[in-house]
Amino acid sequence: MYCNRLYANKPELAASRIDAIGYQVGHQLSERYTMERPRFTDHLDAIKFICKDFWSELFKKQIDNLKTNHRGTFVLQDNRFRWVSRMSLDPSENGDLSQENAEAAENKAVQEPNMHLHFSCGVIKGALHNLGIACAVSADPSQLPACSFVVRIKP
Amino acid sequence: MQFFGGTEISPSLPASTASGNNGHMMYVFNRNGVCLLYREWNRPLHTLNQQQDHKLMFGLLFSLKSLTAKMDPTTQDKSNLGVPQLPGQGCSFHSFRTNTYKLTFMESPSGIKIILVTHPRTSDLRESLKYIYNLYVEYVVKNPLYTPGTPIRCELFNTTLDQYVRSIS
Amino acid sequence: MPPVGPRSGDAIFANVERVNAELFTLTYGAIVRQLLTDLEEVEEVNKQLDQMGYNIGIRLIDEFLAKSNVSRCVDFKETAEVIAKVGFKMFLGVTASVTNWDADGTCCSIVLEDNPLVDFVELPDTCQGLYYCNILSGVVRGALEMVSMKTEISWIRDMLRGDDAFELQVKLLKQIPEEYPYKDDE
């Protein structure tokens, strides 16, 4: 995935644009993949569809781990997420000296990949929205190449 | 092309270890002569500062390529010594050997130059360099956090590269 | 002289990692739509698509060279052929042909009869002037620039504008030799 360089100095705006692009794609794809299916009975059913069928269509593998607090939050973990499988950071910034540096490096290690994950989050959000579920999606790439997506369903 | 190594001048040439420790160092330059990567595994002596060292290596390649093309007995079509060529233009060399080290070189048509300095007894490493070029594509070019033309700082590339170079014999 | 590389990209295409075609096409469509919304001016969208393509092309060239084992790109004619026959197959899954060479061999056309970018696409009237596939011209331009060829690329035919194929005209402006980058002799 190549970053949209239009908004180099406006990261929030770039993020929302990339998210919007992902949203359109997810929406259209889930429309296509659910055409011949019965309607989903509940949220968990729809999330399971994302984890299995939808993910398999896109990445030829399923989500590896699904957790939920049973109150509308789901964590979908892909142990080897294809879109970040080649992503790696500056090793010198992780071999740090002080506590402060370590924190800064860790922050960076999350922020930079995050920019590239807005698309994926948008796709999941768009797909679920098409199934009638309004939600917010965020990503946690701190354990590359594994990646977790947190889906919070809006009540 | 071989320099001194070809005639085995030095009888006391150390035997190469079966594997694990034959790689001395590696350079990657891009088409603008920027040193994208310098990696070292086994280099007892540093005589120059890094910048001078990179410059010297690039100069060596540049001159040697120019010379080898100039000396080519099979073609008429050549420019004057020192006149810049297109990457891939004219003939080129792929390695030379001294009694203490061997240097293997490859250049892609996009001007990426990979230089691997190893133990003098290592075998033909042309395929290894192609493999390293593939690693570069997978772990550097495809790393979305990498900006083309800047020094390579990719952990995944370094670890995969180190592992591979350890297997060279 | 040995051949510069494979004559077709079929074998390589069979081996490379592939992305879901719908995802690819829909994503491209969504990007174009987003750009149209954000930039309003169609001309500006064309420019951005070309720039995005360029950024992709300068990266893609190395993957192309590494996987196709192409060893030199010095001759423009040879290079154009190999990009059309192998490059397009490798990354788009379609074969392009090279035609319409001019007399001195510095200008030609790459013709695509099949183009996965435009599956499901129909341009509304408001998008007159949009070169929907302009990213491709950027990719080709960027890739060629990395093998020392400065080119100018323009669309001659576009199926979304009612033509029977996609035709990209590639004009070689100059070939840039490598410079010795260190000027001072200290």
TrEMBL record, chain A:
Q: Which Gene3D superfamilies match?
A: Trafficking protein particle complex subunit 3
Cross-referenced CDD domains: TRAPPC6A_Trs33 (cd14944)
> Any stretches that span the bilayer, and where are they?
none
Organism domain of life: Eukaryota
SUPFAM superfamilies in alphabetical order: Ligand-binding domain in the NO signalling and Golgi transport
**One cellular component term from this protein's GO annotations in UniProt:** trans-Golgi network
Fetch the Pfam families from UniProt: TRAPP
Q: According to its UniProt record, which protein family does this protein belong to?
A: Belongs to the TRAPP small subunits family. BET3 subfamily.
Q: Which PANTHER family match?
A: GEO08327P1, TRAFFICKING PROTEIN PARTICLE COMPLEX SUBUNIT 6B
This chain belongs to the protein called Trafficking protein particle complex subunit 6B
Q: What is the lineage of its organism?
A: Eukaryota, Viridiplantae, Streptophyta, Embryophyta, Tracheophyta
From TrEMBL, chain B:
Q: Name one GO cellular component term.
A: TRAPP complex
Broad class of the protein's primary localization: endoplasmic reticulum
Localization, UniProt: Endoplasmic reticulum; Golgi apparatus, cis-Golgi network
Which spans of this chain does the record mark as coiled coil? none
Q: Which UniProt keywords apply?
A: Endoplasmic reticulum, ER-Golgi transport, Golgi apparatus, Transport
Biological process (GO) annotations held by this record are: endoplasmic reticulum to Golgi vesicle-mediated transport
| Highest taxon listed in the record's lineage | Eukaryota
InterPro entries in UniProt: Longin-like_dom_sf (IPR011012), TRAPPC (IPR007233)
Which PANTHER family does the record associate with it? TRAFFICKING PROTEIN PARTICLE COMPLEX SUBUNIT, TRAFFICKING PROTEIN PARTICLE COMPLEX SUBUNIT 1
Question: How does this chain assemble?
Answer: Part of the multisubunit transport protein particle (TRAPP) complex.
This one is known as Trafficking protein particle complex subunit
UniProtKB/TrEMBL annotation, chain C:
Q: Which domain of life is it from?
A: Eukaryota
Q: Principal place where this protein is found?
A: endoplasmic reticulum
Keyword Transport assigned to the entry: answer is yes
| Gene3D superfamilies, A to Z | Trafficking protein particle complex subunit 3
Q: Cite a GO CC annotation.
A: Golgi apparatus
Q: Some GO term, biological process aspect, for this entry: which one?
A: Golgi vesicle transport
Q: Which UniProt keywords apply?
A: Endoplasmic reticulum, ER-Golgi transport, Golgi apparatus, Transport
Q: Give the InterPro entries listed for this entry.
A: Bet3, NO_sig/Golgi_transp_ligand-bd, TRAPP_component
Q: Where in the cell is it found?
A: Endoplasmic reticulum; Golgi apparatus, cis-Golgi network
> What protein family is recorded?
Belongs to the TRAPP small subunits family. BET3 subfamily.
Under the heading PANTHER family, the entry gives: TRAFFICKING PROTEIN PARTICLE COMPLEX SUBUNIT 3
Describe, as the record does, how this protein assembles with itself and its partners.
Homodimer.
What function is annotated for this protein? May play a role in vesicular transport from endoplasmic reticulum to Golgi.
Report what the protein is called: Trafficking protein particle complex subunit
Question: From which source organism is this entry?
Answer: Malus domestica (Apple)
Source organism phylogeny: Eukaryota, Viridiplantae, Streptophyta, Embryophyta, Tracheophyta
